[in-house]
Structure to design on (183 residues):
């Protein structure tokens, strides 16, 4: 017949008691660490809530994307261009010939350029008196408005497209509101 205990019952009891004591000691150490050195500073709830509050205060905040254009106030002050929101794939850039940028001509501004990256992008802005947009390798659409009238223009790739007042029979001042690109 097979023995119930492969080791003696006395040895088994010693192991069991040793394991229980080790677990008890580990629990006591954990309790001391959580309760804050075990000093008598009020109830346990007060001691642990202080520790939790300190950790929560040090944690970084949540990063929530709101799609606002970064440093838009600075750009408005320096260049008089209102950039509102976008997905980061169409960005204001210094104009450099031959780099595949979108180029915008407005009556009261020098040429304004936008770098485009990714497979698609969008940017909302307010740029008055726009009359020409030069496309790049992307399929591009531009939304312009005058008064209550809105018009969407398909921008021809790699060439200048008349938009706004240059495409308007009445030559009204149109404002560029949005650029959208896709590859």
């Amino acid at each position: 017949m097979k023995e119930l205990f492969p080791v003696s019952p006395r040895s088994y009891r010693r192991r069991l008691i040793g394991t229980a004591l080790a677990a008890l000691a580990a629990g006591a150490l954990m309790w001391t660490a959580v309760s804050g050195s075990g000093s008598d500073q009020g109830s346990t709830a007060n001691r642990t809530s202080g520790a939790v509050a300190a950790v929560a205060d040090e944690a970084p905040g949540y990063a929530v994307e709101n799609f606002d254009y970064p440093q838009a106030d600075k750009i408005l002050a320096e260049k008089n261009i209102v950039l509102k929101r976008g997905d980061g794939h169409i960005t204001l850039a210094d104009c450099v010939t031959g780099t595949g940028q979108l180029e915008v001509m407005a009556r009261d501004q020098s040429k304004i350029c936008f770098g485009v990256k990714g497979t698609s992008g969008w940017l909302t802005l307010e740029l008055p008196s726009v009359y020409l947009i030069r496309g790049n390798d992307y399929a591009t659409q531009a939304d312009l408005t005058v008064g209550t009238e809105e018009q969407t223009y398909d921008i021809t790739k790699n060439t200048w497209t008349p938009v706004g007042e240059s495409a308007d029979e009445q030559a009204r001042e149109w404002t560029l509101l949005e650029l959208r690109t896709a590859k």
